[in-house]
Amino acid sequence: MVIKLLPSQIPIFWEAIKFAVVSVDEVIEKDREAYLNLLLHSLLNSKSQCFVRLNEERRLSALFITRFSINKVTGEKNLSIRILYSWKRSQDEEWKDTFAVIKKFAEHEGCTDITFRSKNPRIWHLGEIMGFKESSRAFTLRMEGSQ
After folding, report:
1. Is residue 38 within 8 Å of 45, Cβ to Cβ?
2. Cα 69 from chain centroid?
3. What is the pLDDT of residues 48-82, one digit of tens each?
4. Residue 74, number of CB atoms within 10 A of its CB
5. So where are the chain's domains?
6. % the chain with pLDDT above 70
7. pTM score, two decimals?
8. DSSP 8-state secondary structure symbol assigned to residue 133
């Protein structure tokens, strides 16, 4: 079962959200507090959205965070999946159900596309199964002395 959390429910799931986003985004310790404060603010004012997947025992099994953006040239609305985290390996069918909820949400909100970025090959595979096409690759060179 996939549920979109209301802003009032964010505090209930905050510890799980923090764990997932720090794990996925690999936020370094010195930036963690500012990063989490910005995320919390974004979730509480609905600029970002948090969805959770519960298993049969109604326990948290996956969590994902989305955010809208508007293309300043075309005016098209995009839904970006910012965080996708699962506490256990899930079957493709579970992910298909999850993405169906995200897709329905994006359609309801008038989005023209859904995007995600990940360095995890399993997530790439899931995206391909769901019909996503690779649009670009990002590369990072960390400068010496930067922490």
Report:
1. no
2. 14
3. 999 999 988 999 999 999 999 999 999 999 999 99
4. 8
5. 2-129
6. 99
7. 0.86
8. -
The H or E element spanning position 113 is strand 111-116
Residue with tokens 């505090």: 11
Cα–Cα distance between 64 and 103 in angstroms, integer? 13
Of 32, 21, 115, the closest CA to residue 67 belongs to 115
Distance (Å, whole) CA 25 – CA 32: 10
48 in Cβ contact with 68 (< 8 Å): no
Number of other CB atoms surrounding residue 129 within 10 Å: 12
Residue with tokens 């596309």: 113
How many whole angstroms separate alpha carbon 11 and alpha carbon 20? 14
What radius of gyration do the chain's Cα atoms show?
Answer: 16
Which CATH superfamily is 2-129 part of?
Answer: Gcn5-related N-acetyltransferase (GNAT) (3.40.630.30)
Residue 146 scores a pLDDT above 70? no
C-alpha pair distances (Å), 147 with each of 33, 35, 76, 138: 15, 15, 36, 20
Span of 12-21, 67-76, 121-130 with lowest mean pLDDT: 121-130
